Amino acid sequence: MQQIYLDNAATTPVRPEVEEVMQPYFCEKYGNPSGIYKMASECRQALETVRKQIGETLKVSAEEIYFTSGGTESDNWAIKSTAQRLKEKGKHIITSKIEHHAVLNSCAYLETQGFEVTYLDVDEWGCVRFDALQRAIRKDTILISIMYANNEVGTIQPIGQIGKIAKENDIFFHTDAVQAYGQIPIDVKRENIHLLSASAHKFNGPKGVGFLYIDKRVPVMSYIHGGKQERNHRAGTENVAGIVGMGKAAEIAFAAQKEREKRVQQMRDYLMKKLCEEIPYCRINGSVARRLPGNCNVSFQFIEGNELLLLLDDKNICASAASACSTGDTAPSHVLTAMGIPEKLARGTLRLTIGYQNTQDEIDYTIKCIKEAVKKLRENAEDYRIYKENFSCNMI
Question: Which ranges carry the Aminotransferase class V domain (predicted)?
Fold first, then answer.
């Protein structure tokens, strides 16, 4: 069996069409966009074409799109710069306990600078509670940052309602949409989003490039100082090839979004159903009703997730236990912990994320290998032999 890649939440393969449009900008059209000669002008025009293209996918103006090195930089820029610009108005920020570390660590840094951060609890499905959000709002609250969809369990937050609360209280709203952009429909104006982060390598574009949407009303400070690139807000020579690739990846993603979403979701539902039916003592984590199309996060009792990953790797199956940014961390997932999942069960977690390139045959083979691997691991687990308390899958 050839390699089966089921870790698309970590990164995705670059589409051949994307690689093709990038190639000329490495050795032929290699000009610096800040130059005045023809080749530089062509590169500059390519950037503006992509800026308009990305803006159209969000129904915003091109001038509100800023190119970055990816989701982490976009999150850092959105949170830190907004906070610094508005610190005279207030120093209180609201986020959730299940955010990506790019958000959590940016907030932690701001706490060392005198800001106060409220970290909201989530329910058992990984959703922010509206009542908790309302209670957390203060007169000095300047920013709410809640991710559009969780990178581990796939739960999609009720962003429209959160944006409405932010608007009613005159608070800027940032969302980390790294997992959502290109996968599900997003309407920043209707959902009252002021800042949105995205990264090309999550929707079959190249690594090292992303963007930050900044509503014209947001007084964001410059993030990287130097030259006048990105309208004096983000200095540094632009990654032209990467940006062009991101534009093509976005074009493809949005052109076939509904069809791809339906196909991927069908495979995901089949995968979750079979795992729950054929492997006892397992639990699906996160909401099934409000979930990213390709995300399957499942915990198996009486095993260690890392051991399961190694057995699957032997079968040429690529998967993960949690966020790629948490690889090597021996502690249970902060997302699962915030959702109230017991530590022992959280340690037996597997994240399978399906992409456009996956097939039904690959899903069937993966189910077979997981069943065999879990059985093997449990045969050597003392607590499995002693304790066989049954619990059902959480399907809502």
Answer: 4-365
